[in-house]
Amino acid sequence: MDFKLGEEYEMLRQSVRDFAEGVLAPGVVDRDEKEYFDRGLFEKMGELGLTGIPFEEKYGGAGMDYLAYAIAVEELGRIDASAADTLSSHVSLGVWPIWNWGTEEQKQKYLLPLVEGKKLGAFGLTEAGAGSDAIAMSTKAVLDGDEWVLNGRKIFITNAEAADTYVVFARTRPKEMRSKAFSAFIVEKGTPGFTFGKFEKKMGLRGTQNCDLVFEDCRIPQENLLGQEGDGFKMSMETLDGGRIGIAAQSVGIAQGAYEIALAYAKQRVQFGKPISALQAIQFKLADMALEIKASRLLTYDAAWRKSQGLEFGTDAAMAKLKASETANRVANQAVQIHGGYGYTRDYPVERIMRDAKICEIYEGTSEIQRVVIGNSILR
Ligand SMILES: Cc1cc2nc3c(=O)[nH]c(=O)nc-3n(C[C@H](O)[C@H](O)[C@H](O)COP(=O)(O)OP(=O)(O)OC[C@H]3O[C@@H](n4cnc5c(N)ncnc54)[C@H](O)[C@@H]3O)c2cc1C
């Protein structure tokens, strides 16, 4: 085994770090305060090639792999968790299913502009009555002539109204058929009958948008069925397996950012006549943070590498997401603790980072669901 990253990965890391520190950092507080999604930043990520990292050059991608993608998401997350979330929702959830299951016609029409970052993707699975239990979904699609007619409502959808192309899941067969009852569709913004509902006011990730997608007799062409009719549930689960690598990477980045800020603060904050970093109580916190971040990063890179190699990776991705998201929360919490009262104010970035970290334990499968996935795999 060789744990040293190749030069191309280190070059990518440096270029994303430069972008994050130079372009994202100056506005990160403002976007959080104003709850503002900046589409221009997404377009800049496209110009840098970040939106196409794991896709082939023939589709406008960089022809790299999921390890490279994880490194890029991690570097964004270190500075701006919202930017990391925008990229990972776009690549893992909005683009990858079209790349993996799309016909060549669908790829030419939808994949290219998504990969190039000219269009923004989104993924609509969750409903009010169907979160962890996606099979409870009630959105329906009925074939009428050569069009599918969609009716229903998706909630919490990342990239929200700003997106252009949505992968949406709906029931196409009777409820009794359970996991074979769903199909996936590509839905374009602007399709009659497709509107946007409630916008969420969130604890963190305030530089992203989330809203309801509303379908009322929304007619989409038959050729916008993605993959095989009846395969939607399997497709959604496979997509989330990959998505969890993105959330794990985002979590590692959030933790790394919080750790670096806490370390710098501990070195300069003087109490009892010496920097608090000289206190063993603070050193132990920093030691635990560094240890957990390293463990989380190794799990994340391993899952990304397995996916890139075409190996089975679902359990590894669940382990990486579970460990890294819990690490991000523990590290952010301890970073606030090291800052004392200042950490609880909005004058210091650890307050925002702690709010941003929480979602990583919830979306793309909660921590409880990751444990269900890992447990099932152990006992299979
Ligand atoms: C900011 C944000 C962005 C999101 N983006 C998207 C998106 O782009 N697309 C999309 O489709 N969805 C998105 N979601 C939805 C997200 O994936 C769900 O919120 C998540 O899967 C949990 O579902 P739920 O909220 O309905 O919680 P529930 O499923 O109601 O869970 C509530 C609690 O019960 C626990 N629980 C449920 N079932 C079990 C079980 N079997 N065993 C043990 N514990 C269990 C959960 O772990 C949790 O603690 C987003 C959500 C948020 C908040």
Features:
380 residues, alpha+beta, Butyryl-Coa Dehydrogenase, subunit A, domain 1, Butyryl-CoA Dehydrogenase, subunit A, domain 2, Butyryl-CoA Dehydrogenase, subunit A, domain 3, four-stranded mixed β-sheet, four-stranded antiparallel β-sheet, 10 strands, globular, binds flavin-adenine dinucleotide
List the helices and strands and how they pair.
Blueprint: H1 7-24, H2 28-34, H3 39-48, H4 66-79, H5 81-101, H6 104-115, E1 121-124, E2 140-144, E3 147-158, E4 165-171, E5 182-188, E6 194-199, E7 210-221, E8 225-226, H7 232-268, E9 270-271, E10 274-275, H8 280-308, H9 314-339, H10 349-358, H11 367-379
Parallel strand pairs: 1-4
Antiparallel strand pairs: 2-3, 3-7, 4-5, 5-8, 6-7, 9-10
Model description:
By secondary structure, the protein is an alpha+beta fold. It has three domains: 7-115, Orthogonal Bundle (Butyryl-Coa Dehydrogenase, subunit A, domain 1); 121-233, Butyryl-CoA Dehydrogenase, subunit A, domain 2, CATH 2.40.110.10; 240-379, Butyryl-CoA Dehydrogenase, subunit A, domain 3 (Up-down Bundle). Helices cover 52% and strands 16% of the residues. It is built from eleven helices and ten strands. The chain has helices spanning 7-24, 28-34, 39-48, 66-79, 81-101, 104-115, 232-268, 280-308, 314-339, 349-358, 367-379; strands at 121-124, 140-144, 147-158, 165-171, 182-188, 194-199, 210-221, 225-226, 270-271, 274-275. It has a four-stranded mixed sheet with strand order 1-4-5-8. Helix 4 packs antiparallel against helix 5 (81-101). It starts with 6 loop residues before the first helix and ends with a helix. The relative contact order is 0.12. Bound molecules: flavin-adenine dinucleotide (FAD).
